[in-house]
């Protein structure tokens, strides 16, 4: 039976070092406290775990495989590259692991309605899916810019019975969708659970999301030992809010010989200012509070949140999960960035060499592996989390390639 174990970096009061915490309106405190108490009880509840793990196996399709990228490895001529295949889950991304767990928690709290936010659409699809499975009302907030570039997922959410509400404020992307989802939650807190999609927000969300995504790391840890007889030299994952990365990293945090590498969206380059790289841009990325948590975010000298840019809607967010901020501060994880052009090239390379279309989010992690592998010995191992599939991004990819004359 799977368990939702505490990770060593978790500290009391929902803090990861100085990061995390609860910075929310007073009206939301009862709902957050109810969620925290329900999760505390559920963590050790055998009946809950039996239902959750049964659905992970029979509905989500876990365990997902670990694929050796043979042709990509041969082409690069260095480290051996393995792919953790979250793209093969039901709904096509890791988001379903957390959506299912939180929806079951919501049912346990007696909630009848789910609200969610989404950027790339994968979390929205996952939430709409579990709402249909568990017979719950579902509303998904999405920036109108993201609606335009993620139409296939918008249509999927509607077919699954969810109402998709377009957000026209701000930059009309993920940050603004989160704002609207929180406003809805404040208004309807008695009947509604806010199903947050990344390891963000006020405590206990970063912990809950991390724990539900930790199944990725547990499986990958066992699978790489079975395949190679040892752990990888590095685990690499893209980092928007950071849920797929923290899920993968959680099983390897205590294995100090394994490097943990998070990849942010470098957009059009750090110097351009058109990116979503909170750690790579010290002039703009500084500690502050956004959406209920203290963490690194892109802000100006007056503390105003700055606009972001990424070819990947799922990475287009100004803040990062507080546990990532802590892992970076203590030197346990390294964070780097990949540009839109590098991610697009990685997308094409994996499609050509392995017959796999990765999500543009995942393409950032893959680009970092492609960058590193040639200079590493052939016995080195890089484990890349392929967080989702790229079908949803085809229109964006084709438009970008046309713009580059490809």
UniProtKB/TrEMBL annotation:
Phylogenetic lineage: Bacteria, Bacillati, Chloroflexota, Anaerolineae, Anaerolineales
Amino-acid biosynthesis keyword on record: yes
One Gene Ontology term of the molecular function aspect: tryptophan synthase activity
Organism: Anaerolinea thermophila (strain DSM 14523 / JCM 11388 / NBRC 100420 / UNI-1)
Known pathway: Amino-acid biosynthesis; L-tryptophan biosynthesis; L-tryptophan from chorismate: step 5/5
InterPro entries named among the record's database cross-references: Trp_synth_b_CS, Trp_synth_beta, Trp_synth_beta/beta-like, TrpB-like_PALP, TrpB-like_PALP_sf
Pfam families registered for this protein in UniProt: PALP
EC number: 4.2.1.20
Keyword line: Amino-acid biosynthesis, Aromatic amino acid biosynthesis, Lyase, Pyridoxal phosphate, Tryptophan biosynthesis
This protein's name: Tryptophan synthase beta chain
Top-level taxon of origin: Bacteria
Matches recorded under PANTHER family: TRYPTOPHAN SYNTHASE, TRYPTOPHAN SYNTHASE-RELATED
PROSITE patterns: TRP_SYNTHASE_BETA
């Amino acid at each position: 039976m799977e368990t939702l174990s505490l990770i060593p970096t978790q500290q009391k009061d929902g803090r990861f070092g100085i990061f995390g915490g609860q910075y929310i309106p007073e009206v939301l405190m009862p709902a957050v406290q109810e969620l925290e108490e329900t999760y505390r009880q559920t963590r050790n509840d055998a009946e809950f775990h039996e239902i959750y793990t049964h659905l992970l196996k029979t509905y989500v399709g876990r365990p997902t495989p670990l694929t050796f990228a043979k042709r990509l490895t041969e082409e690069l001529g260095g480290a051996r590259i393995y792919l953790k295949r979250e793209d093969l889950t039901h709904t096509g991304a890791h988001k379903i692991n957390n959506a299912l767990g939180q929806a079951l928690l919501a049912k346990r709290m007696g909630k009848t309605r789910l609200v969610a936010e989404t950027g790339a659409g994968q979390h929205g699809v996952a939430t709409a899916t579990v709402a249909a499975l568990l017979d719950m009302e579902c509303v998904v907030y999405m920036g109108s810019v993201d609606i335009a570039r993620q139409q296939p997922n918008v249509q999927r959410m509607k077919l699954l019975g969810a109402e998709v509400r377009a957000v026209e404020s701000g930059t009309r992307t993920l940050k603004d969708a989160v704002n609207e989802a929180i406003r809805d939650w404040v208004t309807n807190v008695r009947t509604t659970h806010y199903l947050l999609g990344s390891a963000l927000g006020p405590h206990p969300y970063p912990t809950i999301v991390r724990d539900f995504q930790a199944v990725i790391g547990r499986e990958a840890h066992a699978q790489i030992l079975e395949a190679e007889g040892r752990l990888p030299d590095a685990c690499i994952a893209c980092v928007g809010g950071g849920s797929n990365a923290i899920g993968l990293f959680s099983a390897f945090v205590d294995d100090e010989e394994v490097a943990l590498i998070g990849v942010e969206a470098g957009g059009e380059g750090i110097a351009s200012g058109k990116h979503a790289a909170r750690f790579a841009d010290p002039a703009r990325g500084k500690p502050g509070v956004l959406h209920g948590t203290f963490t690194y975010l892109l802000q100006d000298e007056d503390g105003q949140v700055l606009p972001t840019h990424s070819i990947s809607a799922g990475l287009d967010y100004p803040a990062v999960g507080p546990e990532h901020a802590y892992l970076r501060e203590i030197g346990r994880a390294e964070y780097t960035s990949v540009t839109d052009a590098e991610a697009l090239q990685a997308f094409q390379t994996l499609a050509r060499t392995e017959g796999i279309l990765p999500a543009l989010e995942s393409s950032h992690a893959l680009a970092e592996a492609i960058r590193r592998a040639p200079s590493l010995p052939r016995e080195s191992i890089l484990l890349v989390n392929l967080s989702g599939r790229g079908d949803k991004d085809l229109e964006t990819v084709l438009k970008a390639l046309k713009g580059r004359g490809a």
